[in-house]
Amino acid sequence: MYKIIKKQILSSSIKLMEIEAPKVAAKAKAGQFIIVRANETGERIPLTIADSNKNTGIITIIFQEVGYSTLELGRMEVGQSVTDFVGPLGKPSEIENYGEIICVGGGIGIAPIYPIAKALKNAGNKVISIIGARTKELLFWDDQMRQISDELYIATDDGSYGQQGFVTDILKNFLEQRKQIAKVWAIGPVVMMRAASNITKAFHVPTIVSMNPIMVDGTGMCGACRVAVNQETKFACVDGPEFDGHLVDWDLAERRLNMFKEEEKVILDKKLWR
Ligand SMILES: Cc1cc2nc3c(=O)[nH]c(=O)nc-3n(C[C@H](O)[C@H](O)[C@H](O)COP(=O)(O)OP(=O)(O)OC[C@H]3O[C@@H](n4cnc5c(N)ncnc54)[C@H](O)[C@@H]3O)c2cc1C
Ligand code: FES
Hints:
Number of strands: 17
Helix content: 25-40%
Strand order of the largest sheet: 12-11-10-9-13-14-17
Bound molecules: flavin-adenine dinucleotide, FE2/S2 (inorganic) cluster
């Protein structure tokens, strides 16, 4: 059992939890994730390791309540324990000294971009971070991002905080002005990662995205997390979750993510009213 030792409500639908998982914390690296099952009858859901501490054995997760399993996890309180907490899973990010890099985090994508930006900063890169959300209420960890970034830019769709517009607008501006950007990491909703990859492709800037397909076993056995990259089939849980954004088949990724929309709605309605 894995104890919840801290719970923080970051917005009406976004929660942070610190979980005691010393074996996971001992090995966790930027870019990796865990699979959590809240209780015996729960569904296994993948969540990024937003932060980890080897000394305290604590893993931080940040999640948006979008369906039944994330809502169920969000209802748990400090002192309770989750049944399964498996990880670290997935390949770590390739952290090197590239020079000047841009980290883009959209919406809940701020959680996975934070450990990557932090690791890139520690490796000596100049880190320019661009984070954004639909509105100010949904934007979190701007202070943490500021601490590990050389420059931080904020965008909200409605202009309630930072610049009005999308993170991709700021990204495009940057690439037009600064020619020396060595690499971009872009993490967030598929539509955002797709748009960011299209922009960077035009500027020939290598771009890494973190794919978030539906996962089941997280070990490469079930095939649920299939993505097509450079026309080859890859499994996001073992070959990723990070891939070259210029080579991802985005149409397929969008189709597969929406595959169970009806079923997800039915289970949410059924369980919420029970
Ligand atoms: C490697 C990886 C890391 C992830 N890290 C995080 C994280 O740090 N924080 C976080 O909040 N979420 C993260 N996700 C997404 C998270 O796993 C899903 O939101 C969760 O499984 C949804 O479960 P649910 O039962 O609550 O909702 P469901 O009932 O399964 O889905 C409800 C709604 O959410 C949409 N949805 C389902 N799965 C995803 C998904 N993978 N991505 C986007 N939308 C989805 C559905 O289309 C549906 O509209 C990650 C996914 C992957 C693969
Ligand atoms: S989740 Fe089963 S193969 Fe990746």
